[in-house]
């Protein structure tokens, strides 16, 4: 079935360290290499967010952009310029890999957005890698 979607790009910056509590120091260094640096490092993350749904008959929109921006920005401010592992409780016991961050973004945004419209999130960590989470077609 054809569908209509709306995608919008958001950015936030945050610090993290790749380190798993399930692994010992040597394993952490081997697996995560320089990303295991004890002092951490930062990324300028870019999030591409896609919502789908029937456009409202009065507004012609799936969700008004100002409303979407408010929902997303009110959430992203919780991550902005934070050290994810130290300041965001979700990552206290989960390594802040792109996979886990995109899962966290999905969980949080799905609960804040109108029911069922969240369709896809792409999280760019660097210019060379991104992580996707989305609904099955
Ligand atoms: Ni990193």
Q: How would you characterize the overall build of this protein?
A:
28% of the residues lie in helices and 28% in strands. It is built from four helices and five strands. It has helices at residues 25-32, 65-76, 84-87, 98-112, and strands at residues 5-16, 41-52, 82-83, 118-124, 130-134. The mean pLDDT is 96. The structure holds nickel (II) ion. Nickel (II) ion (NI) binds at residues 16, 35, 41, 43.
Please give the radius of gyration in angstroms: 17 Å
* Averaged pLDDT: 96
Strand order of the largest sheet: 3-1-2-4-5
Question: What general outline do the C-alpha atoms trace?
Answer: elongated
Helix-strand category: alpha+beta
In sequence order, what are the helices and strands, one letter per element? EHEHEHHEE
Cα(first) to Cα(last) distance is 9 Å
| CATH arch. level architecture | 2-Layer Sandwich
**Using DSSP, what is the number of strands?**
5
Query: Which stretches are low in confidence, meaning pLDDT under 50 for 5 or more residues running?
Result: none
Largest sheet: 5 strands, mixed
> Which small-molecule ligands are present, each listed once?
nickel (II) ion
> What helical percentage do the residues reach?
25-40%
Reading off the top of the CATH hierarchy, the class is best stated as Alpha Beta
Annotated CATH homologous superfamily: 6-pyruvoyl tetrahydropterin synthase/QueD
From the 3D structure, determine the CATH topology.
Answer: Tetrahydropterin Synthase, Chain A
Strand content: 25-35%
